Amino acid sequence: MQPNQELIPHLFRNEFSKIVAVLTQLFGLENMEIAEDIVSDTFLLAAETWGKKGVPENPTAWLYTVAKNKTKDLLKRNQLFNKKIAPKLVPAQAESAEIEIDLTEKNITDSQLQMMFTLCHPCIPTEAQVGLSLRILCGFGIDEIAEAFLSNKETINKRLFRAKEKLRIEGIKMEIPAEAEIEKRLAAVLTTLYLLFNEGYYSSTQNLPLRKDLCIESMRLTLMLIEYKPTNQPLVNALLSLMCFHASRFDARLNPHGEIVLYEDQDTSLWDAELIKRGEYYLYKAAVGNELSKYHIEAAIAYWHTQKINEAEKWNNILQLYNKLLQVEYSPVAALNRTYALARAQSPNIAIKEAEKLKLINNHLYFSLLGELHLDIAPNKALEYFQLALSKAKNDNDRQVIQAKIDKLAC
Amino acid sequence: MKEFMMIFRMAPMQDFQPTPEQMQESIKQWQDWIGGIAAQGKFVSTNQLSFDGKTLKPDGVITDGPYAEVKEIVGGYIIVKADNLDDAMTLAENCPVLFFGGHVEVREIMVLNP
Q1: Which residue from A109, A115, A325, B58 could staple onto A21, CB 3.0 to 4.6 Å apart?
Q2: A257 exposed, middle or buried (CB, 10 Å; 0-12, 13-18, 19+)?
């Protein structure tokens, strides 16, 4: 019986993160690589054995048993380890007691949470945090990570290596921060999770299943934070809400040719109603307390985009939300989106006046917006702006979108 | 860029009781105007001031309200970024306080060397 082609990679990916987290908790962060090796060896053995004898009835239990055995072997062989770690495992009194490695659900979740905070440590650059999270928390291969970042194996390996070194040098411990620290550290973790989500949502790699997995993984990790009481904060619920709303349109965003379909042109029957409902649930959970974070505002904006109505009312709500968002945290994209909402809520002429003040002359989206705003008023000018946008576009996806607008004008 | 404070001043309107719709409309005007500044990446902070308050004078006397003997009251402020005073004045255009007959005072925030 051949191992199911789809089952194995997904199974390995899930279990990689769980077992590595538990073993690293045991060995200490500085020995994370040893944990990774043990798990990789376990999967290698699984691939060989299952190929010959077929997938066992309980594949997860099989993996855990083998991983435990390999760990015990290591402890017996490696004196240093034995002195340092075995005492933690073996009950003080019973000398002959079996070494126990705790792969219960609770310990797995606890270990993964500790790992999340550890890997998203502010002492390493954010892209390294994202890379490490993908590798250790999500079990992605180096190839996949390189593809997601449109980079290459050497760069990613170097990046992860340096990050692990830094964690080692700084003596970072694998633990959940103390209550006083947790809010600050949580902010960093959320930034990384959001970046991870955006990699999947906006990334330029053509590998669709990979991009979807990135979104799913970031949502899974965010959910883990929500299911752990000390980190179940409005901020985290707002982020998950935001992710659900965006993800609900994943299937509608790309046509069968893999080209981007803009919001106005999307087939709304492809929008995932279940995800939208979940987004609304988490938005409701997030509507507590005093803080109106950027995640709250972005989630609310995303909510409005799931409403298929088109009146000025909707766009005025979106406009007001962007007004607030820009005060909380400015970004060129938010400024452009705000201006678009202004056009829909009031008029293109008013929006054009505001747009001209933005002066984001190096941003292709700026000229794209100006083109949009001039479409009905002055098509010639619109074309000029679109062509200017085309010249400033940085990748094929963006060029394709602008070219489509130019083609539409020509009709 | 430098920072400038815009102070919104207007004549006190003690008899003015806005309807909920008028309040909403006013809030929207302010938010749109501030949003326009924020969209240009020039917003720093803003606050509205309550019309109630007290005034402390040199002889230790405390009187009710900031509006006791003044012809105008400060309703709030915004701090913005701009290269110079002229640019800051451009940002002040269409400030909603102007539609209530008030005015906008624009002052540069001084940076004192330690």
Answers
A1: A115
A2: exposed
